[in-house]
Structures are given as structure tokens and as C-alpha cells.
Design goal:
This is tRNA (N(6)-L-threonylcarbamoyladenosine(37)-C(2))-methylthiotransferase. The chain contains 13 helices and 18 strands. It has 435 residues and is α/β, with parallel strands linked by helices. It folds into three domains: 121 residues, 3-Layer(aba) Sandwich (Rossmann fold), CATH 3.40.50.12160; 228 residues, tm_1862 like domain (pyruvate-formate lyase- activating enzyme, Alpha-Beta Horseshoe), CATH 3.80.30; 55 residues, Nucleic acid-binding proteins (OB fold (Dihydrolipoamide Acetyltransferase, E2P), Beta Barrel). The protein is globular and about 60 Å long.
């Protein structure tokens, strides 16, 4: 059977899709590109924004146009939270929720059609232990691997649908994480990204309870690739114990993504975020002091209900004052069923676009200033792909985009030492140097 798989959303989804792909191949099926004719299409969906939900529906409609008689399955977060609409609109033959997707093949064997789809969606509040998903290779990525160590979230921020789509926070035991890390190392990966829906909550549901820094210390004794990157941590989870561990574990990349969402105290409170602007600033300044070369990134939401011009300026000025090196800027996207979707005072239209643009312009300035401090210095670059000009392109340990001369002899997935010559339109130009 020809099967096409498309994945939307987070690194956790990408890890899980790699497990699905592995299962398809082990059963002897042929995996084809999503734009090709297939017998089965699987859309691994995301629901974190309205745009992600829209993209899910686009893919489902595209699949039906390509192969009107194929089975079409939508799985994961959007299927979990909006299954009734998906069924009503006749967009899939199988609608499979966030827990049920780990028995994907069992549900696909059930007969369904667009008028009467198979719906396998249970209450996310009742989700139990995580299903172990051993993965040998990542879907379509030969340079780095993502390793899911945790799923779900207990925070219930007022704008976020994730606790409803993925359930409460649950962790893989350290032994499983170490086994999967070794599996990726044996497969030849030189970088692994530890990822989760709420990574810093790892271990709090285990018996006995554990903390994230303890997982890192256990991995220090395990077989692992050359370097490990952390995906995202909340500011309150950057504890003295974690900082001490990070300073002693030189295989962890100096790259820390600490979501901000807003730099205004009133907006943070309305969001249900458990910190103040001052507390967030202290975390970022501590990280910069202890890791001078680290990339420091943040997520920011603009246009949240109640965000006046003054409150937006508070966010802008806080970011401007901090040594952040990049931003992910998101216009507020109301998600059905969340408290924020019912709040008044949303910012829309040209004002929303102008605020997002202002933050993105600020982010470009900060990124440029950070890049310039590394001209003339040595970095370790993971080679990922070729640019349209034929140059090698990759990522340094501290999350800088680096290009290398086209004639450099190497392979995707290698980590090479380079000396940064200058900034270019394509990125920082690096010249290979002796290790």
C-alpha cells in the first residue's frame, strides 16, 4: 500500500511521526510524498493556532482531490479538540485522537468513509502513562534527531489548547530516554534535541518524583551523540540545580529558549503565566552571565485581549533591555474552549500587524548584533543542507546559521569546526579550520 504522511506543529509531533513512519515501513508499505497519489493519507495535526487548524483542513482536502477513493486519517491535536467539526465537514475517513494515535494501525483497520468516519477520541483528562515509541531514524532529517521525553501540560494558560488536546503532564522514565538517546547515537546522529510539551516538568509525575536536572545528570553517564540541545524551558524552571548541571555538562548546547509571551505584568496575569516581567528578566540575565556565548530566545504573543498600547510598550521595552538573541512572534489566536477566547479587548487589523512587525524588527536587530560578536571566532557547525547557491548550511552549537564554501568536502550530519569570517546575506560565513 502507498502511504503519505504529513506532519504539522511541534518537535514532539515530528518524533511521533517518525515512529508512525517506521511502523509503516516495517509492515512493508511504500511511503510516498504527500502530493502523490496514495492509498492512505495521514495528517498528523496541530491545534495550537487557528492557522494550524486551517492547514490541517487544507491538507485533508488536497488528499481527497489527489485520490478520491483513498482512506484519509487526521490524527493528533486537531482531531482531539475539533473532531465533531471534522466529522461534520466530511474531511476524513478516520479521526483519531491524541492517545488513540499510538494504536494507529488498529483504528485504520476499522472501515470508515467521509459520511460515517471512524472516530476514536477519548477524554484527554484520563490519559495514562506515555506509550514508549522507539525510533531508529527521524522522518526526513539526516542531521539532527528529536527525542520526546515528556508530553502534556498542567499549566492551563488561558490562551492555550494544549492541555485539552494532549492531557496532563507525563514523562518517559530516564531509562527509556537513555535507551533512545543511544539508539540515535548508533544511527549516526551527532545532535539530539530533548523535547516535550512542557520539558521542564519532566519527572514530576514519576515514582519516585524526579527533576529535569537529574535526567541530564543520568544522560551524562549514558551513550549519547556529540551534542544535545534543549527545546524550551519556562523561566521558573531554570533552577540553581539546573544551572549547576548545565555548567558542568559540556555536551549540552549553549542555547536556551525561555518563553516570555508578554512583558506586561497585567497581561501575564490574564494569561495565567506564573511569573512577573522582573522574574523573567532575572532568569535571562542569569543565563547570559553564566553562559556568555549562549543563544537566548523567547516566544511572544501580541494582541492578547487587554493589550493596550502602553502594555505593548512594556513588552517592547523589556525585550529591548534584555540580551535576547532571537524571538518567535505570534499574533494572538483565540482557540475555542479556552478562557482567553471569551475575553474582550483583542487587538486586530493594522494595529496587530504593526505591533508584530515592531517586535520582528527588534528581533532582527538583536540577532544581527549577536551574530557580529562571533566574527573572527571559532564555532562548531552541524552541516544540514545545501543553499540555492550551493553553499553548505548548518547550525552552530549556539544556534547561529552558518554557511561554508561549496567546495568543502563533507557530509550531511557532520559537525565541523569553523572560523567565522563575516556576515553575509546567506548567514555567517565560516571557513573550516583544524579541530
Amino acid at each position: 500500500m502507498k502511504i503519505a504522511l504529513e506532519t504539522l506543529g511541534c518537535k514532539v509531533n515530528q518524533y511521533e511521526s517518525s515512529a508512525f513512519l517506521q511502523g509503516f515501513l516495517e509492515r512493508g508499505h511504500q511511503v510516498v510524498e504527500f502530493q502523490e497519489e496514495a492509498d492512505l493519507y495521514v495528517v498528523h495535526s496541530c491545534a495550537v493556532t487557528s492557522k494550524a487548524a486551517y492547514q490541517t483542513r487544507q491538507l485533508l482536502r488536497r488528499a481527497r482531490r489527489l485520490s478520491p477513493n483513498a482512506r484519509i486519517a487526521v490524527v493528533g491535536c486537531d482531531a482531539q479538540v475539533d473532531w465533531q467539526r471534522l466529522a461534520r465537514d466530511g474531511l476524513a475517513t478516520h479521526i483519531i485522537g491524541s492517545e488513540e494515535k499510538f494504536r494507529l494501525w488498529d483504528w485504520l483497520e476499522e472501515p470508515g468513509d467521509f459520511d460515517h468516519p471512524v472516530v476514536a477520541v477519548s477524554d484527554s483528562r484520563a490519559y495514562g502513562h506515555l506509550c514508549p515509541l522507539p525510533v531508529s531514524r527521524m522522518l526526513g532529517d539526516r542531521s539532527r534527531a528529536f527525542l520526546k521525553v515528556q508530553d502534556g501540560c498542567n499549566a492551563f494558560c488561558t490562551y492555550c489548547v494544549v492541555p485539552y488536546s494532549r492531557g496532563r503532564s507525563r514523562s518517559h522514565p530516564a531509562a527509556f530516554v537513555a535507551e533512545q538517546m543511544a539508539r540515535f547515537q548508533r544511527a549516526g546522529y551527532r545532535e539530539v534535541v530533548l523535547t516535550g510539551i512542557h520539558l521542564g516538568q519532566w519527572g514530576r509525575d514519576l515514582e519516585p518524583e524526579a527533576a529535569f536536572h537529574e535526567l541530564l545528570q543520568q544522560l551524562d553517564r549514558a551513550q549519547r551523540p556529540q551534542r544535545v540541545r534543549l527545546s524550551s524551558l519556562e523561566s521558573g524552571e531554570v533552577t540553581p540545580e539546573l544551572l549547576k548541571a548545565l555548567e558542568t555538562l559540556d555536551w549540552i548546547c549553549p542555547h536556551f529558549h525561555i518563553p516570555l509571551q508578554s512583558g506586561d505584568g497585567d497581561i501575564l496575569e490574564a494569561m495565567g503565566r506564573p511569573y512577573t516581567p522582573r522574574r523573567y528578566a532575572e532568569t535571562i540575565l542569569t543565563l547570559r552571565r553564566r553562559f556568555p556565548q549562549a543563544a537566548l530566545g523567547a516566544d511572544v504573543i501580541v494582541g492578547f485581549p487587554g493589550e493596550t498600547e502602553r502594555r505593548f510598550r512594556n513588552t517592547y521595552e523589556l525585550i529591548e533591555s534584555l540580551p535576547l538573541t532571537y524571538l518567535h512572534v505570534f499574533p494572538f489566536s483565540p482557540r475555542p474552549g479556552t478562557p482567553a477566547a471569551e475575553m474582550s479587548g483583542r487587538v486586530v487589523g493594522s494595529e496587530l500587524k504593526e505591533r508584530a512587525k515592531a517586535l520582528r524588527d527588534l528581533a532582527r536587530q538583536k540577532k544581527r548584533a549577536f551574530e557580529e560578536t562571533f566574527v573572527g571566532r571559532r564555532l562548531e557547525v552541524l552541516l544540514e543542507t545545501r543553499t540555492s547557491e550551493g553553499l553548505w548550511a548548518g547550525t552552530s552549537e549556539n544556534y547561529l546559521h552558518v554557511v561554508l564554501p561549496a567546495d568543502f568536502r563533507a557530509a550531511v550530519g557532520e559537525i565541523v569546526p569553523v572560523r567565522i569570517e563575516r556576515r553575509t546575506r546567506q548567514g555567517l560565513l565560516g571557513i573550516p579550520c583544524p579541530g
